[in-house]
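Chain A, query sequence.
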Amino acid sequence: MTAATLSLANVLYEKSNGIARVIINRPKVLNALNTPTWADLRTVFENARDDDTVRGIILTGAGGKALHRGRGY
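Chain A, predicted structure.
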């Protein structure tokens, strides 16, 4: 299953050049982890684990207050 075909409610997921980028997309609640978000995270981490082209994972959050991307991203 590719990143584009995954059904995710609260997580954005992309893969490029051996890196999987996982973005928790719940900025209105400071990217709090609820049950659907945990399920999404499990799905994307299992997908990355099973993809031999993925060498690393970056986990971050949407918005600017909690678990967000720094300037060097």
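The chain has one helix and three strands. The beta strands are 11-16, 19-24, 56-61.
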